[in-house]
UniProtKB/TrEMBL annotation:
<keyword id="KW-0680">Restriction system</keyword>
<dbReference type="GO" id="GO:0003677">
    <property type="term" value="F:DNA binding"/>
</dbReference>
<dbReference type="GO" id="GO:0009307">
    <property type="term" value="P:DNA restriction-modification system"/>
</dbReference>
<dbReference type="InterPro" id="IPR044946">
    <property type="entry name" value="Restrct_endonuc_typeI_TRD_sf"/>
</dbReference>
<keyword id="KW-0238">DNA-binding</keyword>
<dbReference type="InterPro" id="IPR052021">
    <property type="entry name" value="Type-I_RS_S_subunit"/>
</dbReference>
<protein>
    <submittedName>
        <fullName>Type I restriction modification DNA specificity domain protein</fullName>
    </submittedName>
</protein>
Amino acid sequence: MITLQERVHGTTPPTDWRLNKLHNLFRVRKGTKNTGMRENNLLSLSYGRIIRKDIDSAEGLLPESFETYQIVEPGNIVMRLTDLQNDKRSLRQGLVMQRGIITSAYDALEVDKDSDPRFWAYALLALDLAKYYYSLGGGVRQSVKFSDFPNEWLATPDAQTQKSIADFLDRETARIDQLIEKKQRLVVLVDEKRAVETDKMLFGRVDEGLMQASKLKFLAKTISKGTTPSTLGAEMASEGVRFLRAENIWFGIVTDSPQHFISDETHQIMARSALEENDVLVVIAGATTGKSAVIRKVQIPANTNQAISFIRLWKPYLAPIVSVAIQTRRVQQEIRLTSVQSAQPNLAMEDLGNLTVPAPEKNEAIKIISELELSDKKYRTLTDRVSNSINRLRELRSGLITAAVTGQVDVATWGQKGRADRCLDQIEEAFA
């Protein structure tokens, strides 16, 4: 008889683990609506954890809507099984640690009374990490309910073993999480140092009177924005001319992913917003307003939509300097002050044109661009190393969880043998 763990993880359970059916171990809570606002401790599922939120400042929610929420208790496991095909990155379950309310769009599971909820929260997380849930939402099916899960056999350790495994994972994942948090703080510090250095390279020279500055509108022969094809009666295509959206502008780079295309015919109709080499692209609407990059020759032909402005300079050699300057703290602060703040920021063409940026002569510009490239390479190398280390730690965390809940790790001897310490040391040494 093949268990769910064997089929998903390819592991053989220990011989002393008994078999049980999935729907015997878990029961979806019923009849727990928050009618009459009996509970106001608002909870939310975020990256595999249940966190508390302030009910008075919850964005987009009115207090009376919380009566439709469900009450959950410590030890419940909350599962988010919506949007399966479009969102494959975030973790979809969390263990409830305090009584509260959470959206009824999620399933709240009660665990068999003889089981340790922590163990099964980790076991469900291992299925999530193995992308098991997405197979249940195959094709056009975007969402499922826990009741849709096949009633498969699960290999189940006894209560004491469940507790030992849960204690082990609580301890070891906490150690890994602390190290990840430490490295994430390092990335923030590196980014701050990089920002200070970039600001000094550009506006330091301006402040000292060593370099001229100018409003963008005096440097540009064109400041315009793109168009959404559907407003012209056109549709997106599966291939053809590259079509850029705000998500393609990120940290000074025009990314090739995700890919969007329009037909050659649509590109001709939208000739006004056909991009040229060295156009400076700036996101002017949405959450990433202010992001900027220069489009390269190899990315032409290309077009863009109304969320991106393109700046075509009289002196194309200024493009890299203008793009970097727009992303400095000084200019970003100006953008935040001038952009319209409604549901999403929105930067008007006039305000974009009034931004002040350095405008050196060609020889000085070439020298500054070289300095910027060297600085960029230095900091990217450092942040890439730290990011790789973080990814390795996350892989170790995921692998450890899967190995423990499938009985592939002897949690009683793992710590004594120092295996966790050696794994962490090896990751640290590899990226020191």
